[in-house]
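Homework-ish question, so no full write-ups if that breaks the rules, but can someone show me the predicted structure for this set?
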Amino acid sequence: MLQDFMRRLRWRLVAHIDLPLLLIVLAIMATGLATVYSATYDTNNRLLAQSMNMLIGLGTMWTVAQLPPQKLMRFGLPLYVVGVILLLLVFAFGIRVKGATRWLSLGFTRIQPSELLKIAAPLMLAWYFHQHEALLKFRHYVIACLLLLLPFALIAKQPDLGTAILVGAAGFYVIFFAGLPWQVIVGLATAGGVAAPFVWTMLHDYQRKRILTLIDPTSDPLGAGYHIIQSTIAMGSGGSFGKGWLDGTQTHLEFIPERHTDFIFAVFSEEQGLLGNAFLVCLYFLLIGRGLMIAANASTLFARLMAGSITLSLFTYVFVNMGMVSGILPVVGVPLPFVSYGGTALVTLSIGIGILMSIQTHRMLVRK
Amino acid sequence: MYARLSPLNAHDRELSRFRFRIAFAAVIVVLAFLVLLARFFDLQVLRHEYYSTRAEDNRISLVPIIPNRGIIVDRNGTVMARNYSAFTLEITPAKVDDLEAMIEGLGKVVDIQPKDRKRFRKLLEESKTFESLPIRTRLTEEEVARFAANRYRFPGVEVKARLFRQYPLGAVASHALGYISRINKRDMEMIEENEQETNYKGTDHIGKTGIEQKYEFALHGETGYEQVEIDAGGRAIRRLSRSAPVQGKDLTLTLDTKLQDIAEKVFGDRRGALVAIEPSTGGILALVSNPTFDPNLFVDGIRSDDWDLLNNSPEKPLLNRALNGAYPPGSTFKPFMALAALETGKRTPGQAISDPGFFNFGGHQFRDDKKGGHGSVDMYKSIVHSCDTYYYMLANDMGIDAIARFMGQLGFGQKTGVDIEGESEGVLPSPEWKMRRFKRPEQQKWFAGETISIGIGQGYNAYTPIQLAQAMATVANNGVMFRPHLVKYITDSRTGEKTMIEPEPLRLLHWKQQNIDVIKRAMIGVNTSGTAAKAFAGAGYVSGGKTGTAQVFSLKGGDYKATRLKKELRDHALFVAFAPADKPTIALAVLVENGGFGAQSAAPIARMVFDYYLLGKLPKGVAQEDDTEDD
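A: Not a homework solution, just the prediction itself:
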């Protein structure tokens, strides 16, 4: 009787865990924790705080994994509507911090609604396409694009280019996997190329500066170029095998700005070298590969779109962050998944992984 | 096209298209990761030498140059806060292997006390690794020379010339002036919220209380930067460029430190507060909260025994009683009540009541101080002899709403807006206040009986001394109300440009001049033939005042015998006053905690303050200041 209960309990706990995903995420988290320690131990140690964040993240992941995709789907519309309303409120009453209006005060705490859209936007679009499955017409793609454009524009306006890109990408991936015709994609890309000079004039000064400094970081060595110069020095001086954990001079002489958050990859890279980088890139590749497999095997359109979008979003995080730190992409505020310090991003990413697990494990249950 | 296919086919077709796109995405991912790896290879293998050299040999470092903090002087130019340069012995812990041994060795060259070690250890806990921390401050010339000769033995230890804050007047006006101390986590958050992080790089002190806190950003100045090349050990090799810091702005206060000093001295060891205001501007001439403390103790990081002494003292020297103590005003409330009566038409000056020595209301007897009463009492007499019955009746006739409205206009129960953080509001009793204050419905209702004792400044009334002083100044200034303030003007030390803190009237209370004159005449009466006549006997000027005594706890039925009560339970003594009567240049409120009767202990303080301010007369027992004491 008791044994039976214990077995059922164990089953209940692990039934919706996708072991490969979990192991990969844990490996990345362990790497991240070691790096956060190295980046912060001599100033303001964040090891414990980040461990707590990770536990919260894992808890969230488990909880989300329990919800079957059919249930998750129902959150699409309400979350999207709430998210957009909150963004409008930020637009109207947001708190201005460092020249950007991203936060909304609730009296006792502040929230950043744009974070919600990273999940809500793809959820909404996947739900939308799922509703019109098998009857998809061109206008559905147009409407989907408009649904995405609204939060994207509101976030870009704050301005928060990093989050806007992530939300835009997550939504675009849904539309792409839903079968947006290639002609349109090529057309959009061409139009984008043509419109670039106009977009340039619409960018904020600091955004333009970041792109210019990318081309020539030395043009502003103490301002916008400082991040890139210092992080490339950190990476380059790390060499093939790195300077060793806790021994990065760029890191510990405090040359790397934001070294425990967005620029943590510079710390990792300096101390672990090319070998470490290859290892970490492999881990991410495994994570993304597993995600794409889950997407390919998913049983409903909604599940396929969500899994595809989440996986490619993860890729976007990794690529934009590593590209920025190594100086081939402009500086935008995108964290390195499961490595950068910070609770909010961890929870958002964990929700994503939780959804992937839910899609994978509930499919298997259905089949049984 | 889809319509001709069966749903199953459409589904298969859709699935295979999806899988193709997944494969396409996978290819993109692989390509993108290859691009990243190629970039890593480029940086870490091909150009490794180049970047290694850059990392190891030469690094560009920005060294902040801390601006000189602005100085603070009083209205006569007496320096209250300044900076002095001194040598400190600083250790960069990251460059030292065995700190204990190093400090031991240093102790043989310069004098290092156990308290220095203690403070250093505390700083070490809160610091960043590459910061250098002072182990000794204020080195003597000899010690500097001795260390210089032995320098080679102590890598990672340097002598630095630093500016220190100093408050030459010591404990005088410390509650107004405040102090600076090392930046902590909370301060750091405040700095970030104000987007000042860059400006505070390198700064390690910040204003914690008083003027030093309120005007922090003006006093601080703008940090300059030196761009230097440093080697792998963090030592500067050469300077590349420099942007000069901008010195902080200087503040000139409205305070008169001589007056302040005398006021503090006459308080002696009594607890209490005094706020003296220039009625025509709202400028604060003296802001006393006794006992005081020496702000110099905080500058280098306060020693824990000093802190315990200040923080745990039952006298609470760190509490700013003038702004944060809320006391019932007692009878000092009566002139304001009388003015309210005239302005609302509830009384005329000549209208007299017959005082039997008590007032009955709702089955409760409200008693007067004087047994048997004052007989026939008109408004003048009610103030001069402080008749309670007159005000019991008046409060009952006016009603709580009218009282609260009038007193609210006078600033009671609101922050005055003085330029010091954390002022208390006090309590202006009203039915609305009671509704907010209490949770249970039966406690929320206002009872008419509660209005009665409001009239004599008791009951729920609780005001800060600065509110009382502001109200007094407003009456003295014929209803033109100013925000009490401490800073007269801010001087930009670079351009010499002065920014006045404008004495714009806060509010114009359109009282009838004849009504104000009635009140002033009665208050003059208090100081010539009334309750404060003894304290002001022989004064060489005409002044107006009102005594007050506020109950600390209620004596149910018993007679008040001060001598038999413990000191902490004795009544608070209060006094409000202005002078000279025809054109007031000073108005004040005095409070002596547990001082007993206002006439006995508070009024004489006001007398001595007026004597000095108006006549330059020093009180007996306070020696003539010699200038050496300032330093």
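Now go work out the reasoning yourself. Hint: Confidence is low (pLDDT under 50) at residues 1-6, 554-564, 623-631 of chain B.
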